[in-house]
Structures are given as C-alpha cells and as structure tokens.
C-alpha cells in the first residue's frame, strides 16, 4: 500500500520539490499552503503520475484553520506516515534595534507556532491510527548559528532545533521518528519573501557562488524517510560546497 505524506508549504521551493520527489517515490500526498492556484496546478501535475493528492489551503499561523483542516480529513487521508514541517520564512534582515514587529510576529507565528499547531494535529492522527510515523522539521543553518541581523529568524530556527529534540523524546513512546534537516543557502523564493518582494536584492544573495537548489534538500528528506524502520536520522546539516558557515562564503567576482 502507498504511504501518505503531508507537506506544509508545498507551493514553492523546498516543499514543492519534496512533493515531486515523494510522488516519484510512490507516496500519496497532502499538499498545503496559502496560494490556492499553485496548490491546484501542483495537484494536477502530480496526479498525472498516478499519485493521489489532497490539497488543503490554510495558513499555518491560524490555529483554528489548522485544526479545521487536519481534524476533519476524509477517512482515506487520516493515515499520515510522514509529516514534512516545511512552511516557513524570514522577514527582513535588520539590526534588532531597527526591527519591525510585524516581521518578528510573522516569523515567530509561522516558524514556531505554525509548526506546533500542525505537528499537534498530525501527531494525534498518527497515534489514533497507530502509525509508526515520521516527522521531518525543516530547520536551518540559522538554527545552529546566529549571524548579524539574523536575530529573530535565527531565534525561530533555534526553536525548531530545540523542538525537534523535544519532539523526538516525547514521541519516542509512540514510535514516531523525528528528523531535522538544516540547509544553508538554497535558491528559492525565500529571499524574495525576506526582502518583501525586492527581486534585485533577493538575487544578490545567491551571486558569486553556487547555492543549493530545492531538489538538493528534497533528496536529503527522501534519504531520511527511506531509512529502514530501525534507523533514524536525527539531524542533518546540508550546505552549498561554497558556504562554510552562515556568513562565510567562497565567492567569485561576477
Ligand atoms: P519558499 O519561500 O520558496 O517557500 C516557503 C513555503 O512556505 C511556501 O510554500 C509558502 O506557501 C509556505 N508558507 C509560508 N508561510 C506560510 C503560512 N503562514 N502558512 C502556510 N504556508 C506558508 O522558501 P523555501 O522553500 O526556501 O523555504 C522552506 C523552508 O526552508 C522554510 O522553513 C525556510 O525557513 C527553510 N530554509 C530555507 C533556506 C533557504 O536558503 N531557502 C535555508 C534553510 C532553511 P504560501 O506562500 O503559498 O503559503
Ligand atoms: C535560511 C538560510 O542563512 O539565510 O535559513 O538563514 S540563512
């Protein structure tokens, strides 16, 4: 029987690449995000490969929406084997004394609270259905180190690091595995979102070196979820070869 994975933030970047990867590997998919048009077109693409797809359009920051969507799944979608907690963002790159509380709230509400709301609902389903499930949290190199002006984004990803460890301890008794994948720079819509749609500024982030692409991270996720049942990948840091830490890059002049 096919396994089922739920991927948050499947409308772009790492989440979308992971949806394509897991569909290729034979999973049925629950794809989520706020952009309904993108969910619809991804569903159409994935279904052409005989994957069953359920699209759920909700904002992970809204606890009521998360609950309504995930506690009322159709019966044939209740058995979720893998949850990929991917939805997340950075907003701004400002010194803490110049920070903007709207940006801070968006990051904290999405990256920490959203991940918690979704994990809670999916953990209930895994327990009720006696699934030996797997939760994969997308952390970041920003959850391992802090960099100048990264303040609140780094704090949220340090929280994901701590929550991944805590979830692994608490869910062990239910045989639910927890993995954290921590990428360095991946060229997605991440920087466009961070810089409030300033495309020129976003592009400069990836100039002069070869960043990861979303599929590189999807391959790591696939590696983690395809281990035998007695093996768990606790934590994986995956970086561009030209990036040694959050802020040390080997850049060529263009
Ligand atoms: P993208 O901006 O390309 O994708 C982000 C995804 O998250 C989108 O599908 C977006 O969907 C979804 N999302 C954002 N906010 C919400 C929300 N409130 N409710 C529901 N979905 C939401 O960025 P990436 O693919 O790069 O980012 C994915 C994850 O990877 C994030 O957690 C990010 O922090 C992490 N990461 C990224 C790195 C990078 O360099 N790119 C490096 C390390 C980690 P929609 O807008 O449709 O809601
Ligand atoms: C995204 C990578 O280095 O911009 O998590 O924080 S970084």
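^ structure tokens above, recovered residues below v
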């Amino acid at each position: 029987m096919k396994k089922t994975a739920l991927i948050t933030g499947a409308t772009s970047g790492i989440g979308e690449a992971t949806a394509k990867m897991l569909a290729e590997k034979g999973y049925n998919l629950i794809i989520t995000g706020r952009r309904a048009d993108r969910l619809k077109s991804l569903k159409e693409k994935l279904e052409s490969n005989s994957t069953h797809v359920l699209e759920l359009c909700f904002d992970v920051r809204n606890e009521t929406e998360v609950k309504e969507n995930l506690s009322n799944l159709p019966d044939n979608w209740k058995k979720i084997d893998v949850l990929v907690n991917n939805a997340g963002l950075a907003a701004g790159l400002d010194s803490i004394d110049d920070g903007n509380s709207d940006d801070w709230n968006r990051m904290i509400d999405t990256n920490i609270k959203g991940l918690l709301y979704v994990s809670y609902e999916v953990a209930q389903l895994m327990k009720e259905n006696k699934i030996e499930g797997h939760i994969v949290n997308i952390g970041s190199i920003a959850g391992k180190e802090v960099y100048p002006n990264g303040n609140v984004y780094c704090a949220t990803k340090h929280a994901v690091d701590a929550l991944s460890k805590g979830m692994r301890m608490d869910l062990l008794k239910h045989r639910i595995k927890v993995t954290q994948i921590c990428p360095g720079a991946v060229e997605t819509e991440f920087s466009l979102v961070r810089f409030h749609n300033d495309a020129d500024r976003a592009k400069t982030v990836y100039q002069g070196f070869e960043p990861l692409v979303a599929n590189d991270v999807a391959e790591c996720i696939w590696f983690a979820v395809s281990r035998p049942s007695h093996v768990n990948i606790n934590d994986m840091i995956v970086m561009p070869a030209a990036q040694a830490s959050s802020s040390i890059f080997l850049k060529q002049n263009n």
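The longest helix spans residues 101-128.
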